[in-house]
Amino acid sequence: MLTISLCMIVKNEEEVLEQCLSSVKDICDEIIIVDTGSTDKTKEIAYQFTDKVFDFEWIDDFSAARNFAFSKASMDYIFWMDADDIVSEGDQEKFKKLKAELPDNADAVSMLYHIAFDEYQNPTFSFRRNRLVRREKNFKWHGAVHEYLEVAGNIVASDVAITHRKKDKRKGQVPSDRNLKIYEKRLERGDTFTPRDLFYYSNELKDHGQYEKAIEYYNKFLDTKKGWVEDQIRACINMATCYRMLGNTENEIEALIKSIMYDVPRPEVSCRMGDLYKERRLYEKAIIWYQLACQVNPEDIPGFRQESYSTWYPYLQLCVCHWHIGNHELAVEYNKKAKEYRPNDPSVLKNEEFFKEYFAEK
Q: What is the C-alpha separation between 30 and 96, in angstroms, rounded?
């Protein structure tokens, strides 16, 4: 059976590190923790799981820290996580099965990453990342911020998922500006930004409410005509969000439509277009877009996946739209479709009660 080194970089993660390491200690044969300057009990917790705890002087470069951690690995494969990630009990069993059955020629293994959840703890936002790599291939991390692991060869898509479980921030708390400051320091130095840098810098600007500047840099990213197509699509969607926050509906629509230049409409784009027509009570036009969202299989989307936009959400909106134009039987059927995904959803249950009362009076 293959052996696995877990390689992590951490800083001030005392609240989450124990739950993270507890979820993988029976999977990994070696645990390597690289601390980049903790001032809390992070290292004490790490030593409860491993004696391989190393210090790394922080130089505003996540790739440098991750590559240092990888250099300390000694097992067949390297597995990486962040401190606010866990492997759920169900996925631990899948991981053990993967470990026992992984083909000898596998160079890397991708896993789903669940980063957002509904009130029932079902994943609502997921994407794939290369998590497990053959050590002898010497794959490297690239990028100072929002770093990525460059892999090649035989990449296996597994059914294992990593779950993001960072504790909720207090309401109204401003997101960390750490990454934004790193990008701004690089700009001040005159560093050349790659297309990926431009995209993720734009995201940081958006997340910090700098919408006009975010739009400027999203356009710079798209103008390069380079980068991953999913990032190009996401740039258009994020630009639409910026325009919405600025109250510019016309440009919001243009940004959403622009995303279709890169591939078939993503369910999120279709639903947001449907929402814009629904807000104007143009229900028949809204129906076209919501139906389009239902026709895309989320499994066919290689990038970010928001399950709601291809499952219950468009069906619930189709219910509303069809009711408004008099297609009452269709409205009932679409509400049933939405209920298949969210049986306890308040809106779905409220619709059911409304239909019951309405048809009883007929």
A: 15
